Amino acid sequence: MHRLLRSSTKHGLLYSALAASCVIAQPTQNGPATLEAFLDDVHSLTADFRQEIWTADQRLLQTETGTFSLERPNRFRWLYKEPTELTVVADGAQLWIYDVELEQVTVAPFDASVGVSPAMLLSGDRSVREGFDVVDSYPAEGFQWVKLTPKIGGGDFSSVLIAFDGTTPRRLELVDGLNQVTRIELDNLAVNPDLDENIFEFDVPPGVDVIGDEG
Q1: 207 with 78: CB under 8 angstroms?
Q2: What sign for the dihedral angle of Cα 112, 116, 118, 119?
Q3: Phi-psi sector, 192: left (phi>0), alpha (psi -120 to 50), beta
Q4: Residue 2 within any structural domain of the chain
Q5: pTM value?
Q6: Which distant-in-sequence residues (6+ apart) come within 8 Å of 55 by Cβ?
């Protein structure tokens, strides 16, 4: 499972953010409105990202960088460039994960693979909002922070923080069941660009093993 979707494994969800010790502010009522505005106003998005995985005792395990594009509903493309190459593409029907080093592609139905996840929250339609509760919101570091928890437990993460600049997401922080934290910082964002439809298609490279049903 991909990093954006499972933050507790080496390759495990989009989605860099703020250390918990820095997020101290009085709660506000702006969080739900900010999230709703994002869902209403942001239909496509591109950005560079930096992703870090931290242990519960604040030891840095891994740092990765890359780019991503998304378009609602249910289409995205995440390209991990360093230190390992990984391509994750959702075309609305299937999720493709291409590990360049392993020369292996994994494919699965989109809904079954992503479920109620931060990746789905960012790229899904409005119905995905129903899978999350807004449990806190506050201003900090010039952003409006919104904390969400999945309504159905037993998933790969227990909470997600999203920092909004207006209606644009700038940072994310995912906490898994072991209290490991995946922090994702977004830079060079373009909001509502016109995207080529081809970027959300995935062609299996020649000679690469495929695991799963290509449909």
Answers
A1: no
A2: positive
A3: left
A4: no
A5: 0.80
A6: 61, 180
CATH number at residue 49: 2.50.20.10
Q: Give me the amino acid identity at 158.
A: S
Structural domain includes residue 174:
yes
Number of structural domains (the chain) is 1
- pLDDT by position in tens, the chain (length 215): 345 554 333 333 443 232 222 232 334 457 778 888 888 899 999 999 999 999 999 999 999 999 999 998 889 999 999 888 999 999 989 999 999 999 999 998 887 556 556 667 788 776 767 778 889 999 999 999 999 988 877 667 889 999 999 999 999 999 988 899 999 999 999 999 999 989 999 999 999 999 997 76
Domain ranges, residue 168:
20-191
